[in-house]
Amino acid sequence: MSRRRVFWGLALLVLGTLLLLQELDILRVNVWGLLIPLILIGLGILVVWESSHRSQTSRTERVTIPHQGAERGRLRIRHGAGPLTLSSGAGPTDLLTGQFAGGIAYRTGRDQDIYTLDMHAPSSSPAQFIFAWPFFSNGGRIWDVRLNPTIVYALDIDGGANLVQLDLTHLLVSELRVKTGASSAEIGLPANAGYTRVFVQAGAASVQIEVPAQVAARIHTRGDLSGMTIDRSRFPQIGNVYQSPDYDTAPNRVDIEAQVDVGSLEIR
Fold first, then answer.
1. Residues 6+ positions from 73 with CB-CB distance below 8 Å
2. Fewer beta carbons below 10 Å: N end or C end of the chain?
3. Where does the chain have alpha helices with state H?
4. What does the alpha-carbon distance between residue 109 and residue 97 come to, in Å, rounded to a whole number?
5. How do residues 224-246 score in pLDDT, each as one tens digit?
6. What is the torsional sign of CA 121, 127, 129, 130?
7. Model confidence pTM above 0.90
8. Backbone angles phi, psi at 177, to 5 degrees
């Protein structure tokens, strides 16, 4: 049992005991009037406690998952507060390798030649939720994910409130879905993946998408158009679509659908 769960368990026990004594007229004190000071004192103690045990709470897990002969991978990544980086660099026998500060939980599966992987942050207690915020933590969950450049991936990434950096330049990605909240996202698209379909949905975020020079693009945008900047010298506007002149014949091309509610979007 974690120390934080013990702490909050004891805090609830003390509060419940005080309320019971008040109801029995043994303790003649307004317990509810003391509730906010008690909470502040408890949080102060927990801040000191977390600071003294930070090395334990910010442990880094190193994970390597072999591809077991699969030619394609379908990855779903659910990440909370903190930086997330993803790029090439996994070994020839690996589907994925990486370092995960703050821990990781994942589930694997197989659908013929497709290896499926669902990754998310470990379950947290209420105290852990409080300390996931940057004011209390040392950078949140820091995940560094490396993929195999010879495997074709479909990626579904929910970034949450954090910094997302995706360098897909040397990867084979057939589909990319990115959803971010109050965050910043930098996405470098594949250079030699043939056809890649991209979906980006962002809230109050800053999103930058880099299309490699040798890759043609077709771009559909929705949301706050005033916050969008698109390189029209590369992607001239045709109606409601921005498209490379050689899009239909290019060997490498991306089809981008992007929606930014409140924030900025730059595609170059």
1. 67, 95, 96, 114, 115, 116, 117, 147, 148, 151, 152, 153, 154
2. N
3. 3-23, 31-52, 54-57, 126-131
4. 17
5. 666 789 999 999 999 889 999 99
6. negative
7. no
8. -120, 125
